[in-house]
TrEMBL record:
Entry annotated with the keyword Translocase: no
Location of the Pili assembly chaperone C-terminal domain: 178-222
Signal peptide boundaries: 1-25
InterPro entries linked: Ig-like_fold, PapD-like_sf, Periplasmic_pilus_chap, Pili_assmbl_chap_C_dom_sf, Pili_assmbl_chaperone_bac, Pili_assmbl_chaperone_C, Pili_assmbl_chaperone_CS, Pili_assmbl_chaperone_N
Cellular component terms (Gene Ontology): outer membrane-bounded periplasmic space
Protein name: Fimbrial chaperone
Classification of source organism: Bacteria, Pseudomonadati, Pseudomonadota, Gammaproteobacteria, Enterobacterales
Amino acid sequence: MSHSLKFTLSAIALTGALFSSASQADIIISGTRIIYDANKKDVSVRLENKGKSPLLVQNWIDLGNDNAEPGSIKAPFAATPPVSRIEPKRGQSIKIMYTATESLPKDRESVFWFNVLEVPPKANTNQEENKNLLQLAFRTRIKLFYRPTGLPGAPAEAAKQLKWQVASEQGHAVLRADNPTPYYVSFNSATYTSGGKRYDVDATMVAPFGKAAFTVKGLQNASAGKL
């Protein structure tokens, strides 16, 4: 039986409505990820309002828990301005600065998340109509990678160095990834082909010098072996 693995690498940008998934966010972040090189004083991120109405925008950085309240997060970064109003078809630059008193690991990347929450202005309706008015707030998260200076190898080559194994685990086929590099490897999509049939893989990210197991959707068993 033949086996093959195909995947697309990308920083994952998660965009969703807090109250509805049918609409789309109007605030666009320039880029799908942020790289903060340790030798930089700060980095800038550009936000653009593609909508037709002014928007109040709040931004913050979290440690990976997307349910944490912004005020309770102790991230080693500050994003300024934390709140801004962006007019239609205009933009706003957000400056991100490293503020920690203790240094992050110097032998590998560290990952955080940059959040943007947009809230449209209240509609000009009377008080009675406001009771039945649903205001949508949209939140977008992209990864922020802190990259120490002097890391060996090239980030673009990290994916090629992953070591893969396919195995059966509790009645499901899983792909196990071993990352020997100091860089995070993220996946936008991944597929696994077994016996001429292609299966989607629930792949997300593998940490530096770390291991991860991803479920092969719809495939119950697989022979263990390197790919």
